[in-house]
Write a structure and sequence with these properties.
It is a single chain. The chain is mostly beta strands and about 120 residues long. The protein has one helix and seven strands. Strands 1, 2, 3, 4, 5, 6 and 7 form a seven-stranded mixed sheet that branches. Strand 3 and strand 4 form a beta hairpin. The longest helix is centred in the middle third of the chain and has 10 residues. The radius of gyration is 13 Å and the shape is globular. The relative contact order is 0.31.
């Protein structure tokens, strides 16, 4: 992966991810900011990368599947982006432009410099 340290993201572009089974730089937190243990009932939450949120620019189901697999889940069952948790503004945006050509993290490119919120392609 390649990365930079500037961004234009807003928290309305933070990624929320629901995974179908956890590790490393990615974690899921609940609406109080607590990381939860992987269970069949709790596999959805705000996606964090090294304790910072992930912007939705370039994010697709390939990205969701790659990250879920990186965390030890079998696949993503759904994902959405938006400002759903009050605590989101407590986090910096740490990862952007997560573009994956397959469901493997090795196929992904990303940047730690975000531009969320300044340029909208939707």
């Amino acid at each position: 992966c390649t990365s930079t340290t500037s961004h234009n993201c807003l928290h309305s572009e933070d990624v929320h991810l629901s995974c179908a089974v956890e590790v490393a730089a990615f974690t899921l937190v609940n609406d109080e900011g607590h990381t939860f243990n992987v269970t069949h009932d709790q596999s959805a939450g705000l996606l964090l990368y090294n304790g910072q949120t992930v912007c939705d620019d370039g994010f697709t189901f390939n990205s969701a599947n790659a990250i879920c697999r990186e965390m030890g889940y079998s696949r993503a069952s759904s994902w959405r982006s938006g400002n759903f948790y009050v605590i989101q503004s407590d986090y910096d945006i740490g990862l952007d432009d997560v573009v994956c050509s397959s469901d493997s993290w090795d196929s992904c490119t990303s940047t730690t410099s975000h531009n969320c919120g300044l340029v909208h392609t939707q």
